[in-house]
Amino acid sequence: MTHLFRSLRHRNYRIWAAGALVSNIGTWMQRTAQDWLVLTELTHRDATAVGIVMALQFGPQLLLLPWTGYAADRLERRTLLMATQGTMGALALGLGILTVTGAVRLWQVDLFALIFGCVTAFDSPARQIFVSDLVDDGDLPNAVALNSTSFNAGRMLGPAAAGLCIAALGSGWAFVLNGLSFLAVLASLTVLRRGEPHPAAGASTRQAPRGLTAGFRYVWQRRDLRTIILMLFLIGTFGLNFPIFISTMAVGVFHLGADGYGLLNTVMACGTLGGSLLAAGRDRTGLRGLA
Questions:
Q1: For residue 78, what pLDDT band results from cuts at 50, 70 and 90?
Q2: Residue 40's closest CA among 279, 32, 58?
Q3: Are the C-beta atoms of 191 and 15 separated by less than 8 Å?
Q4: For 8-44, what is each residue's pLDDT tens digit?
Q5: Which of 125, 175, 192, 237 is the most buried (most CB within 10 A)?
Q6: Helix (H) or strand (E) holding 249
C-alpha cells in the first residue's frame, strides 16, 4: 500500500493532489449537470444539442494545440495554472448564477462551453506537466498514475453528487459548487514550496523536440508512441461520446431522474478507477501492459 501511494511522501504533491481531487469532483458535477440541463431543461431531449455543447467544450483542445503546448513549455506553470483555474472557477460561477436565477438560455450554455474549452486547452497540458515539478523523476510514473486515479475518483463521485444536487436543489447549484471547488486548487497552488524537489521551470529547460512539426516527427519515429497515439485517437473518436448515449438512454429508455442519471455516470467510472490504481502500483508500464 505504501508503494502504491509513494508519491504522496512529497509535501508539494500531497497538497496538489488534495486540491486536484476536490476540483475533479466539482468538474464532473458540472459536466453531468450541463448535459442534464441541455437535455431536459433547455431542449426537449435533443441529443444533437448535447453533442454541440460537447464539441464546443472539447474541440478547442485540438484546434489550439500549437499554442497550448507552447504555453506549457515556455510559461511558468504555477502562474499559468492559477490563471486558468481561476478563470474556469469564474465561468462555472457565472453559469451557475444564470441557471439558478432562471435566466440561462441554450446559446449561453454553448458560449460558456466554448470559453471553458479554450481555457481548459491551456490548462490541461500545463497541469499534466506540472506533476514533474512536484516529485522526483523516480516517482514520476506513480505520480502520473495517481493523477489519473484522482481524475477517475472525481469521475466516480462527481456525477453521483451532481445527481443528488440536481434532484434536491437544481442544476444551477452543481455549477456553483464546481466554481467553489476551484478554490481548493488555487489554495494548494498558493501554499506550494518553490524549488521542491526541483525548480518549477518551463519544459524548455529539458531536452525535448522543439516546435510542433519536430514534435510530430519525434512521435512518428517511435513505434511505442505511435501505438499510444493511435489507441487514444480510436478511443477518443468512438468511445468518449458515451455522455450523449447515457443521457439520452437515461431519459428516453430508462425514464430516470437526475439521481439515476448521475448513478449511471458513476458506474462508468468504477472500472477506470481500478485501472488507474493498478497502473500506480507498477514501476513502469510497457505496451504489453496497455494491451
A1: very high
A2: 32
A3: yes
A4: 889 999 999 999 999 999 999 999 999 999 999 999 8
A5: 175
A6: helix 242-252
Query: What is the grid cell recorded at 34?
Result: 450541463
For the chain, the domains span 6-195+241-290
pLDDT in tens, 183-211: 999 999 999 987 666 555 554 444 444 55
Q: Positive or negative, the Cα torsion across 61, 63, 66, 68?
A: negative
Q: Report the candidate in 94, 144, 154, 143 with the shortest Cα–Cα distance to residue 119.
A: 94
Yes or no: is domain 6-195+241-290 CATH 3.40.50.2000? no
* Complete DSSP assignment for 18-87: HHHHHHHHHHHHHHHHHHHIIIIIISSS-HHHHHHHHHHHHTHHHHTHHHHHHHHHHS-HHHHHHHHHHH
Work out the angle between the directed axes of helices 65-74 and 77-100 (0-180°, nearest 10). 130
Q: Decide: 141 and 282 in contact? Cβ < 8 Å.
A: yes
Lookup: cell for 72: 506549457
The contacts of residue 91 (CB under 8 Å, 6+ apart) are: 112, 115, 116, 119, 179
| Amino acid sitting at position 142 | N
